[in-house]
Amino acid sequence: MPTKTPGNSAQQGAGDNLSRRRLLVVATGVVGAIAASLPAARRAHSQEQPCAGHMNGNERIVRDFIAAWSRLDADELGGYFTDDAVYWNMPIQPVTGRDNIVKFIDGFLAGWTETNWEILNLMAAGDMVMVERVDRTRAGDKAVDLPVFGVFEMKDAKIKEWREYFDFATYMNAMK
Fold first, then answer.
1. Which residues lie below 8 Å from residue 166, measured CB to CB, with a gap of 6+?
2. How far apart are CA 169 and CA 68, in angstroms?
3. CATH class entry, domain 45-174
4. Which end of the chain is more exposed for a tag (fewer CB within 10 A), N or C?
5. Residues 162, 148 contacting (CB under 8 angstroms)
6. What are the φ and ψ backbone dihedral angles of 94, each rounded to 5 degrees?
7. Greatest C-alpha distance within the chain
8. Three-state secondary structure of 27-39
9. Do β-strands 128-139 and 95-96 pair in parallel, antiparallel, or remain unpaired?
């Protein structure tokens, strides 16, 4: 059996390749076991259009809601909420009721000229949908790319509660 010596590089290379292969096989098995143990909602791919059969109804509604923001229409957005919905824009107090949410949204849409929200990651399970995204918004010559994490609690195909987490100072500084 060949022995490894400092001058025996061909045999070292073969041994190194074998060690790398073993490591790859073990790592692949571990990753596969972890992935198999995760709920399907956590394994779902975060692309805008996932494969057919992997999207529940609430996920589709939230994706449609996010896409609707680009039309800057508060009344359309209000249609996604239950009558008694709660919108927590975390830096400020919650807004309760669909009519109040529409007024609140209309207040900040009034200054916007464009917005597009890019979904980075989305997880959906039952009545809960969580979305990590970047909201790219323009207000005239001012613009902001705002990292946001949103949590949607759904009821009867409507948003019952929506909680948004972001750095308010990032938004305000960009819109000065």
1. 90, 91, 135, 146, 147, 148, 149
2. 25
3. alpha beta
4. N
5. no
6. -70, 155
7. 81
8. HHHHHHHHHHHCC
9. unpaired
